[in-house]
Amino acid sequence: MGRPAWNGGRGVIFLPNAVTRPLKITFLLHNAYAIDGTVRATSALAAALAARHEVEIVSYHRTADRMPLAAADGVRTRALVDLRPGARRTAAEAADQRAPGIVCPHDGVHAGWTPPSRLGETRLAAYLRSTDADVVIATRPYLVCFLAEHGRSDYLRVGQEYAGRDAHGTALLGDLDTAVSRLDAYVTLSQADERAHRAALPGARTRVTSIPVCCPPSAAEPSTGESRVVLAAGRLTPMKRYDRLVDAFAKVAAVHPDWSLRIYGRGQERLRLRRRIEELGLYNNVFLMGARTPMAPEWAKGALAVTSSGTEPSGISVVEAMSCGLPVVSTDRDHAPREIITHGEDGLLVPDHGPVEDALADALCRLIENEAERGRMAAAALRNSERFRPEYIAGQYEALFAGLRPKPGRRRSRKAVIGPRRPTRLPALGVGRLRQSVAVNCQVVSGGALAFQVPTGQLAPGGWMLVLLPRNESIAPAVHSMELERSDTGGDGSMRAVLDQRHWELAEGDWDVALSRVGGRRPRPVRAGLVETARLLDPVALRPADGGVRTWIPYATEDGSLAVRAWLRPAHAEVTSVEVDDKAIRLTGSLHGRTARAHHYRFLARLRADGGHLIDAPCAVDPHGDFRITLPVEVVAELHPGGEALWELRLSAYGGPEVRLAMVTGDLVDRRDVSVFPAVRCTGPGGALSLRPQWTHDHDLVLRSADAVLGRP
């Protein structure tokens, strides 16, 4: 049987095999140890091709111990230059690493955090001279130029365009056009970009073609569509035009204040976007989330996705969102979104000219207000994303290789040996032994319970326990443990344990997840696999409960281990919004817990350092437990002790509990850098100062007062 291919709306057909013998295919990445759309798409395509071919990923740089996306079985990886702290190199190599690279000087990579170096260029040139690959694929302009200059003609030299021709400056386009004309093939991700490159290279013999980005099916459960969250993702660069998305969402929030926008990614525009969010007073509705890997569990938290880019050549985030069951609202230009989204079926396209902010806001409001239409488009998005599956896209690349000359597979050269190859298959655990490479998945399920799963093949036969160890050793009981059982769903042989809030109680704090043998004495930490927390954003999970707050959020630590953050507060004051202006700081929220709602409260602000300078103000609480607090700026300014001070915020009841103001519902394990409030400048007895509400590590709300220094709040 031949290769599967997508036949439009008619589904899958089988074509004759384009390549009759296995090839060795090498992908060149600038840094496979960072995460961006190019790395995600390359990893997916490499995994699909590895089913029939020998595939290798060569990373110019290595900046971390572990790749954010583990290479699939059958995909080998190697790095040319190790930039990790403590990496060993000779004096000559150190000098070469300090010397800048010279190829394709107009690529922005030269001005980035990991610029090319003489050492890297020497090693990459040696690799391209000696590799035994049949096909070498370069994934960014710098690497395309390098492949054209140093690659051999007896293997296929293929370039890929992820950024789009419109994203490159005139000088870089000159370098790129010269390089592309020397390659065997150049692949764009949209037909529009293919036309642009063809027009610029009318006499070139290079095969210029378009093959869409590939996206594997989501490993996370698709979105239920029940949250009130709109999602966007991509690098925070001027080209993405997140500024007009923020402006558009100001119009959405004015009509639908209970909806929020989450923007994922990092980049140079972060501070400018933060300022714009504060200027528009959107700090309760628009959040800069930073980069997340993988993105599928994050897409699953949304009800809608949106892209506002003036040019979106690859459409990677669009396809990823659709694969998680999200309809997409996008600006309409002659690039990938128009070729991916069917207007009115699986998303909405709005004109990319004129009042774009108004058009984006109207399209978002249309789907927010029409749940039935939103659900219909979500189902269509999930269905239509199938055509971007890696097996179909890999078939198109195989057809490209087969149609090019020289014939792939006709040669074998000596092997290049530059840096160690990293084994990619997770080893099985030996009897009685456990390695931290064991990955444990964790999903929040109904009722806030946590379902842990260890995929098949990672544990040796016998009994195993899942163990939760408190990071604070004073917590009692010191350990919670459950025996792993064979899963009765899916028939995949995985092991499973469920931590149910009806039967288990975790003290407030961080808990590290570990595995141990039944009867064993030394639990070992595990690596975080797929962590799904979308259910924490369901409206039901956010409602006040008679039992107070009991929140469990699984998360991956900075070193990749799996942990759980727990909050346990029988009486709790949940902050739902913070409004800041030059007159007052206004708080709204709701009381959780039967014991909390049984009292009349006053609002207290107390200096953390000595408990003095008490501010006592009324707190209005309605019969449903919703409260409102107004804290005049001048009152805090008058009591500011000088220097920098933190004020703890509480609700106090006569004869009852003192309750901390906090925000512990939802899915954020650390909201300090995500939910950020503006500062208020004012004047106290000691001169100018600033006031800023902020969150602590425990998600308690505090007020920071500080003397103004050098004009800064």
Structure, explained:
- With 713 residues, the protein is α/β, with parallel strands linked by helices.
- Helix content is 22%, strand content 30%.
- Strands 27, 28, 29, 30, 31, 32, 33, 34, 35, 36 and 37 form an eleven-stranded mixed sheet that branches.
- The longest helix is centred in the middle third of the chain and has 14 residues, at 242-255.
- It is globular.
Secondary structure blueprint with pairings:
Layout: E1 3-6, E2 12-15, E3 24-31, H1 37-49, E4 54-62, E5 75-82, H2 91-98, H3 118-130, E6 135-138, H4 141-150, E7 156-161, H5 170-180, E8 185-188, H6 191-200, E9 207-210, E10 229-233, H7 242-255, E11 260-264, H8 270-279, E12 286-290, H9 296-299, E13 304-307, H10 316-323, E14 328-332, H11 336-340, E15 347-351, H12 356-369, H13 371-384, H14 390-403, E16 439-444, E17 450-454, E18 464-470, E19 480-483, E20 485-486, E21 495-499, E22 509-517, E23 524-525, E24 527-532, E25 549-556, E26 562-569, E27 572-580, E28 584-592, E29 601-607, E30 615-618, E31 620-621, E32 626-632, H15 633-639, E33 644-653, E34 658-662, E35 680-684, E36 687-695, E37 701-707
Parallel strand pairs: 3-4, 3-6, 4-5, 6-7, 7-8, 8-9, 10-11, 10-13, 11-12, 13-14, 14-15, 16-24, 27-34
Antiparallel strand pairs: 1-2, 16-17, 17-21, 18-19, 18-22, 20-21, 22-23, 22-26, 25-26, 27-28, 28-32, 29-30, 29-33, 31-32, 33-34, 33-37, 35-36, 36-37
